[in-house]
Amino acid sequence: MFLLKLIVIFLVIFAISHLLGIILRRVLKTEKRKIRIHKPVNKTQKTVERVLLILFFIGLVIQTLDSVQIGGIPSLLITFIIVLNCYRAFMEWKYKKESKEHIITLSELVFFVIFMFLFFQLNIIDWLLA
Length: 130
What we know:
Layout: H1 2-28, H2 43-65, H3 72-95, H4 101-121, H5 124-129
């Protein structure tokens, strides 16, 4: 039952996020992306994102090995997602201003932060386990 509830929550969140992206693209009159995979604007961004990913995995290993700090893994993941998306939005703003992709990236990030805040404030995990 836990897994089913979790899957339903993620499907609803994915649907809302996708709908938000569609609405923003129509309002901002930007082109629709064919796939949801992010494409870096240049080699520097690609390199920095790889370094961030490596640092995240190193932090994840350290958090996992330190059995006292297991609760830090969600905060590490949330921090990684926030830093990565802020960097992506900055690079899109700096190199692709006319596409307005940075507005969509920041909007999706704000949605994610609000969702995470509500997820932990409303104690959704306890509801899932009930």
